[in-house]
């Protein structure tokens, strides 16, 4: 997908892989020649990723053990491409919106988001005067310890519940955050999962049509 969109040599790209687990995607991007940063919250995953990086002698790849909620341009700089795969649906409703704003902040060209969505929302959340719908999902037992949660590698780092947005709420938030267009991949269709590419907005004046220049895209409607 990245090659299809950019049509350029990976050596000219700086890529960020968020919640990269053991670094599979990050390692592949680095082997293709990109400058890559992988951020992962669990130490055991980072150790395995660094082992593979060192074994393959990938000097253009750096892994950090950090919570993706700490993301920011001041800390990590900006990236041509941000990969946000398999993390969005592990964040709760208080974190998912600020997190996506930080993704926008560090992104220069586009972000690839692979995430679960819901068709049966049971919660509405107000963020910056806009309503977003989603479904609350259980990540951990309320009685679990931090150590137990860290051992559960396919769940959140610490939050007990997560917030799966509807597709319309996700698309509306991305648009309001500043992404200019959202393209959905149809190569792998799953009922409760989407893969989308959201492009960073760099607005230009439409000179040939004043009416088009004034046009405001309508919100995506909730089903």
Short structural summary:
This protein has 223 residues and is an alpha/beta fold. Helix content is 29%, strand content 30%.
Kindly describe this structure:
The chain has 223 residues and is of the alpha/beta class. The chain has a domain at 2-116 and 166-200: Vaccinia Virus protein VP39 (Rossmann fold). The protein is 29% helix and 30% strand. The chain has eight helices and ten strands. The protein has helices at 2-6, 24-31, 43-56, 73-76, 96-106, 146-151, 167-177, 210-214, and strands spanning 14-18, 35-40, 61-65, 79-85, 107-116, 123-127, 130-138, 161-165, 179-184, 193-200. The strands form two sheets. A seven-stranded mixed beta sheet has the order 3-2-1-4-5-10-9, sandwiched between helices. It has a three-stranded antiparallel beta sheet with strand order 6-7-8.
CATH H-level name of the domain at 2-116 and 166-200... which superfamily? Vaccinia Virus protein VP39
Estimate percent helicity: 25-40%
Helix-strand topology string: HEHEHEHEHEEEHEHEEH
Number of distinct beta strands: 10
N-to-C span: 29 Å
Structural class designation: alpha/beta
What number is the mean pLDDT? 94
What's the CATH class of the domain at 2-116 and 166-200, please? Alpha Beta
Structure annotation, total helices: 8
The rough form would be described as globular
Profile the largest sheet: 7 strands, mixed
> Which fold name fills CATH's third level, the topology of the domain at 2-116 and 166-200?
Rossmann fold
């Amino acid at each position: 997908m990245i090659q299809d969109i950019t049509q350029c040599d990976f050596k000219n790209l700086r890529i960020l892989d968020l919640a990269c687990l053991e670094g599979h995607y990050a390692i592949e991007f680095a082997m293709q020649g990109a400058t890559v940063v992988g951020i992962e919250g669990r130490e055991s995953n980072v150790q395995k990723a660094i082992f593979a990086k060192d074994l393959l002698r990938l000097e253009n790849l750096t892994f950090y053990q950090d919570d993706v909620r700490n993301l920011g341009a001041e800390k990590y700089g900006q990236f041509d491409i941000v990969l946000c795969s398999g993390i969005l649906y592990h964040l709760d409703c208080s974190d998912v919106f600020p997190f996506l704003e930080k993704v926008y902040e560090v992104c220069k060209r586009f972000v690839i988001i692979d995430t679960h969505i819901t068709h049966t929302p049971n919660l509405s959340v107000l963020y910056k005067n806009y309503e977003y719908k989603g479904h609350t999902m259980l990540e951990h037992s309320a009685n679990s310890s931090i150590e137990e949660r860290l051992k559960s590698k396919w769940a959140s780092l610490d939050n007990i519940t997560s917030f799966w947005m509807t597709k319309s709420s996700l698309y509306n938030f991305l648009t309001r955050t500043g992404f200019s267009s959202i393209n959905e991949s149809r190569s792998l269709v799953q009922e409760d999962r989407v893969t989308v590419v959201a492009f960073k907005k760099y607005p230009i004046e439409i000179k040939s049509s004043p009416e088009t220049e004034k046009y405001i895209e309508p919100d995506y409607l909730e089903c």
